[in-house]
Amino acid sequence: MTGAPRTVLEIDELRCAYGLATVVESVSLCVPERSVVALLGRNGMGKTTLIRSIMGLVPPAIRSGDVRYKDTSLVGLSPHRIAQLGMGYVPQGRHVFRSLTVREHLDIVERAPAGSDGERWDVDRVVALFPRLAERARHRGSELSGGEQQMLAIARALMTNPDLLIMDEPSEGLAPLLIRNLGTQLLSLKGSHLSILLVEQNVNLALELADDVYVIERGRIVYHGSPDSVRADATIRSRHLGVG
Amino acid sequence: MTIDPALRLTGLSKSFGGLRALDDVTLDVAPRERLAVIGPNGAGKTTLFHVISGELRASSGTIRLFGRDVSGLAPHRRVALGLRRTYQITNLFPALSVERNILLALYGLRGTKYDALRPIPARGSVVETARATLRRVGLERRGDSAARELSHGEQRQLELALALTGEPTLLLLDEPGAGLSAAERAAVGRIIRDIPPEVTLVLIEHDMDLALSLVDHVVCLHNGRVIAHGTPDQIRQDDAVQEVYLGVPA
Fold first, then answer.
1. Deepest in the core among A80, A213, A222, B114, taking most CB within 10 A?
2. Which residues from A are below 8 Å from B183, CB to CB?
3. CA distance A128 to A125
């Protein structure tokens, strides 16, 4: 088939608020099929609010606009419905279950891929990505270090075999060697059926992985372009991202 | 006469069931030293902080603060000796204002009886002290905001302010740069650099540019053991550290 790639996620003039405080003013953004889209911006600019709104988590509340996943509007759907549609989510702050073991976390969420063309994520494959999780298989969430919890949150999302993976700062708390491995693994997934929406403070990692970059500032998209154009634009890097 | 180390760990071990999270750690931190603790995820870094601060009891070994054996002391007794720490995941009173968060810490340190039926007295020198502490971390304009309204970066700054209340002598910072943007990391770096030199500092940090710019010594843990200890330059070139932690540069 020729023509433009299908859109997996389309956000159309979305506005989200906590009570009276509007945090996302107006965001339009699109994740094409088989692509990695990075959402960058300083803390407090609305990234996590936007991600939570996409996943149906409240608060915040969506005030206007639309979020569509493969032509289905997600507005008003509950998070578990949204997850069932094929969206995986790595929340900021990990949120692992304290009383479940690593292995239990992975087993309870395992699900066959929606499409048939993708390579299936199973325990063996996520453990190859994070060997530490195999060593910790019988340990409970409460017994894991912060970085191990982060690995588990990523592995748990992959085990649902999503078509779209939404990651809110997956590199937070990971050792340098693991960030490099994560980057390599995510790069190797590019071009598979998986699409990724990535929120990252690690600008270098994001630019290395992304096909498309959006920059958010005070609840609005202030920049949309390729990683190369971000690298070449000193104003964007210093004013909106705070990197040299 | 020799000066006691700010922190002396001798044969420190901590087991969780079959897992040896700390395995015979022996380490001296000199007064005024700035030390980074690095190591792969799960190496035992945060467990080390929990054991030093008294939130976890060591399975064996001793901890001395400025010459005094504190191995059996409760966390608040160690705080009274000048020990402070921050956490990987920010621990604040989200509904209270920024200033009230600091005031509570100050009243806690002074041993003032807290009466739940009366508002926290918020006047006089203690308020001045709270405001001065907020200035040190660049939050002087946010005193009236509820802590939950702060951005993630500002919450980390508030947590640093809490750790700086009441003349700390030994400060443990657990990933002060985690989750921060590059600009916020630079701001946190400046705050840490401005901490008075007489405060001994131990920090866990995965951002090597940030960590190595703040410290004069580095210790690397792996599987609960110290595998390297040296200056930032020595650590960068250490084969074992490269293999288990940094990854060989591509």
1. A213
2. 42, 241-243
3. 5
In this complex, do B179 and A241 lie within 8 Å of one another by their Cβ atoms?
no
pLDDT in tens, A121-159: 899 999 988 899 999 999 999 889 888 999 999 999 999
Inter-chain residue contact A146 with B41, CB threshold 8 Å:
yes
Work out the pLDDT band at A173, boundaries 50, 70, 90. Answer: confident
What does R_g of chain B's alpha carbons equal in angstroms? 18
Pick from B40, B181, B250: CB nearest A201: B181
Q: Write the Ramachandran bin of A191: left for phi over 0, alpha for psi from -120 to 50, otherwise beta.
A: left
- Do residues B54 and B79 touch, judged by C-beta distance below 8 A? no
CA angle B220, A168, B210 (to 5 degrees): 35
Amino acid at A18: Y
The complex's ipTM? 0.71
CA atoms within 13 A on the CB side of A121: 28
3 state DSSP class of A133: helix
Residues β-bridged to residue B8: B28, B64
CA distance B158 to B138: 9
Chain A residues touching B210 at Cβ < 8 A: none
Comparing CA positions, the residue from B48, B90, B52, B89 lying closest to residue B71 is: B52
Q: Which of B206, B220, B236 best tests the A interface by mutation, with the highest count of A CBs <10 A?
A: B206
Select the residue of A43, A145, A175 nearest B181 (Cβ to Cβ). A43
A241 vs B: CB within 8 A: yes
Question: Which of these, A95, A80, A204, A233, lies nearest to A156 by C-alpha position?
Answer: A95
H or E element in which residue A107 lies = helix A102-109
Q: Which of B154, B210, B29 is nearest to A43 (CA)?
A: B154
Tokens representing B70 are: 């504190």
State the CB neighbour count (10 A cutoff) for residue B236: 15
* A15 contact partners, CB below 8 Å, separation of at least 6: A22, A24, A25, A26, A27, A62, A63, A64, A65
Cα gap B105→B160, rounded to integer Å: 12
